[in-house]
Design a protein that fits this description.
With about 120 residues, the chain is of the alpha+beta class. The chain has a single domain, classed as GTP Cyclohydrolase I, domain 2 (2-Layer Sandwich), CATH 3.30.1130. Helix content is about 30%, strand content about 35%. The protein contains three helices and four strands. The chain has a four-stranded antiparallel beta sheet, covered by helices on one side. A hairpin with a 7-residue loop joins strand 3 and strand 4. Helix 2 crosses helix 3. It is elongated and about 50 Å long. The termini are close together.
């Protein structure tokens, strides 16, 4: 399977279950890997035959503007679902982390995979 990736996408967003997290934006970082469908742009050199990574970045940014996620797990699942449903990806891996969320912690987060890696 061929994979495109988006590394260290940083977004300011409201995320979390605590009251202060609902009021104070935090920086999150996403690393996304997207499996390409069997027939993709490698063969045709056409963007329409692959997955547009710029479109994925725009969609992820929109998700975090439009929604408040209580948990990183919810956010990662929403990102993966949007990529699979809207871009036709057969497999997605999403790592999402809060940056410096606790004293002595550089990052903490979750990694999920959805779909079938062929």
């Amino acid at each position: 399977m061929d994979i495109i990736f988006i590394s260290e996408l940083r977004i300011e967003t409201l995320i979390g279950v605590y009251e202060w997290e609902r009021r104070a934006p935090q920086t999150i970082q996403l690393d996304v890997e997207v499996g390409l469908p069997g027939r993709h742009g490698l063969r045709s050199n056409q963007l329409r035959d692959t997955i547009d990574y710029a479109g994925i970045v725009t969609r992820i940014e929109q998700l975090f503007r439009d929604e408040h996620f209580p948990l990183l797990e919810n956010a990662a699942d929403a990102v993966a679902g949007a990529i699979q449903e809207e871009f036709g990806a057969p497999w997605v891996k999403v790592a999402i982390a809060k940056l410096a969320p606790l004293r002595n912690v550089k990052r903490l987060g979750v990694v999920i995979e959805r779909g079938s890696r062929q």
